[in-house]
Every structure is written in structure tokens, then in C-alpha cells.
Amino acid sequence: xxxxxxxxxxxxxxxxxxxxxxxxxxxxxxxxxxxxxxxxxxxxxxxxxxxxxxxxxxxxxxxxxxxxxxxxxxxxxxxxxxxxxxxxxxxxxxxxxxxxxxxxxxxxxxxxxxxxxxxxxxxxxxxxxxxxxxxxxxxxxxxxxxxxxxxxxxxxxxxxxxxxxxxxxxxxxxxxxxxxxxxxxxxxxxxxxxxxxxxxxxxxxxxxxxxxxxxxxxxxxxxxxxxxxxxxxxxxxxxxxxxxxxxxxxxxxxxxxxxxxxxxxxxxxxxxxxxxxxxxxxxxxxxxxxxxxxxxxxxxxxxxxxxxxxxxxxxxxxxxxxxxxxxxxxxxxxxxxxxxxxxxxxxxxxxxxxxxxxxxxxxxxxxxxxxxxxxxxxxxxxxxxxxxxxxxxxxxxxxxxxxxxxxxxxxxxxxxxxxxxxxxxxxxxxxxxxxxxxxxxxxxxxxxxxxxxxxxxxxxxxxxxxxxxxxxxxxxxxxxxxxxx
Length: 485
What we know:
Blueprint: H1 2-54, E1 58-60, E2 65-67, H2 70-87, E3 90-95, E4 100-103, H3 112-115, H4 121-131, E5 136-142, E6 145-156, E7 159-169, H5 170-221, H6 235-285, H7 290-321, E8 329-333, H8 334-344, H9 346-351, E9 355-360, E10 366-370, H10 371-388, E11 394-402, E12 405-412, H11 445-455, E13 460-463, E14 470-475
Parallel strand pairs: 9-11
Antiparallel strand pairs: 1-2, 3-4, 3-7, 5-6, 6-7, 8-10, 11-12, 12-14, 13-14
Helix pairs in contact: 1-2, 1-5, 5-6, 6-7, 7-11, 8-10, 10-11
């Protein structure tokens, strides 16, 4: 379980890393594209401002050139200097003949990459398009690198008189971009690493109780039911650990019951077998005189009957506990069945001079149940009551209706059952000094009763009492005639 969970966590971490790398790459590429677009738009906006200022010039026929007022020229030169300081851009204002009107001082311009491309063929083609009245922005590749070029025509009286040309190396734009984007990427990488570390710690915290649970499961598989899983971690892990521990407790209880069952069966079988073997061996060896052999044979025969009864009870309990054997439901009168069982025990009752008190709430008590199995329950309960009721004692039987159920109760005037023995009276082979399974009984009677009643979906209980023992069980009522077919 743990290795599978670890593999799932590893796959999940790989997915996170791949997702972050893919997202970072997409962000970097898209941001770089957007940065270039923003840079070109910014340069174009500056070019349009300069084109407007250039249109304020006046043509001097004597010098055959355009002239600017001192204020306008200073403002244009200031904007060119600002473009250079902000974008490391070379900017020049030219007329239609290509003569430079205003440009930045070359001594201040140290970008050889830009200077080497000012007279390139691409620039000539760009100027041709601009003088035709077209605004141009393009990215060109040169031997020294990628260049951003923006050319804006300037006009007078709707006639193109020249152009404003701005050119910037891509390395400058990319440098600005990296200064802006790299901290974001570094922060995302750091956040991803921290997330992986925290997730790994959380995963380790989750797998630790699973590992302990796996160890406990392996121990249980080897027959050691003492280990328990720690109920720590998330709510789901705690719930799983609690269910696992409950299962372990139940399995330990079942294992203890199995061992006790085997020990009890061995003891119950060994006792009559030892007696039978001893008596027969004594008769065979002549240890017993001939006149006493009949007595000892009678004792051995009684032990065989006891042994047969024990085996029959075990087989009966095994048959009852099989869930694949259905109950034969039938509608019958519980009061009538109680009377019949009493008649079969009349000899034992009279032998001990026991007074039997019968209290039926109604003349008839119709129930729906397996007739033969309920008969066995009544026989077992009545046998126990007769066995532990002293001479001249009292046994009381009653039936009544409680919340659409039919309830049977039997009580006796015997020594009762102690509070220490009460929780165990329905256990198989349980015997105590005052329990109803004491003496020569098999210790299976009450266990059989409990299983039969539970198979009916009902319950049987030992009712607390100051004197004697009181047992009570319930059954479902018989179906009305209108529902029977």
C-alpha cells in the first residue's frame, strides 16, 4: 500500500514540475512577444510625436532645407536624448531626399549594432515605404543581431515631406524584459521548490500511518493481533486507522474465541472419553469385581450419552450458524407451544416439586418464526430453569405484546447469575459457579438460543434481577389473514 501511495505521490510531483515548467515557458514566450509589441508601440508613439514636431519646420529656398525655431529644435533634441536614454534608440529626422535634419549627436551614441545597420538595404526599403505615406514597424535580422525599426512619415499640407526613423537593438528590449520577467520566474521556481518540499513532508506524514497500518496488517496475517495503527493524520486517515483497529479488535476477539472453543471442545470431549476408557479398561483387566461391572458399564453408557449430546449440540450449533440454511417460517401460537414444552418436562418438574406459574397476556399469541428452532429455544431455557431451581422452587413463564412484538419471559427462583458472569452467559462453553451452564451441561444451550433468535432478526437478553435468573426474547407477530396466501 505504501509503495503504491509513494508512486502516486512521485507521479503527482512530476506532473506538478512539468506543469510549472510548461506554464513558465509559455509565460516567458508570451511575455517576450508582448514586450516586443509594447516596445514597438511605444517607439511608434514617440515617432508620431516627433513627426508632429517635424511638421512645424519651414522650408528655406536659399539653403534648400527645412529649418526649425530654436525652441522646437531644442525640444526635438531633448526627445531624441530621452529616447536614447530610455531605449538606447537611434533616432533621426530626414527629408524626402534623405538629408538629415535633426539627429542625436553621434558621439553620444555608442551602440555599434545600431550604427552598423543605419545604411542597410532594409533601411532603404523602409524609407521608400515611408515616403509613400506608410507607417512602418518591423523586426529585422542582421549579422549583428535583431533590430526593431519604426519609421513615421511627417507631412505638411497632407504631403509627405520626410520621415522620423527610430531604430533599437533587440538586445536592449530583451534586457529590459529580462530585468522585469526574471524576478517573476525566479520567484515561481522558488515557490515551486518550496511547494514540492512541503508536499513531500505532507506526503511523508500521510504515508507514515499507512506504513504502520501495513506493518500491523502483516503482523495480523502472521497471527499477531496486538499491534494497532496510530490514529493520526488527516480526518480520512484517522477514520481508516480507527476502522482498521476495530477490525483488528474483532479479529483478535474471534481468534480468542476460536482458541477457547477448541480448548473447551477438547476438554469436554476428553472428560467423558477418559471416563469411558478408564471403566472399560478396569473391566477388561479385572480390576472391578464381576458383581460391580454392571454398575460401571452403566456409568460408561451414561458418559457415551453425554458425549453424544455434546456432539449433537456442536453439530446443531454449526448448522444454525450457517447462513445458507434458511429458516422455515410459519405462523403458530406461541402460548400453545409453551404448553407443549411444559408437558414434555412434566416429570422433571414434579420430581423437584417445582411450582410453575403461567401468565399469558392474551389467550392466543400468534407469531411468525421457525417452529422447530423456537421449540429448541424453549426447551433449552426450561431445562436450565429446572436444573437451577431448588426443590419446592418456582418457575414463571409469560407472554405479552410490546410495540408489535411478541415477548416471552422465563424466570426461576434459583441462585441467579452474578454481574461478573452476566456478560458471558451466551458465550459458547462458558461456565461459572452460578451460571445456568454449570454442572454436567455442555455450555452450548444459551449460545444456541442466542444464535437462533438472532437469525430471526430478534434479540434475547438476560434481564437483571435481585433473585433468580430471568431470560427474555422477542419474535415477530404472525401475518394477518389478508396478507397470507
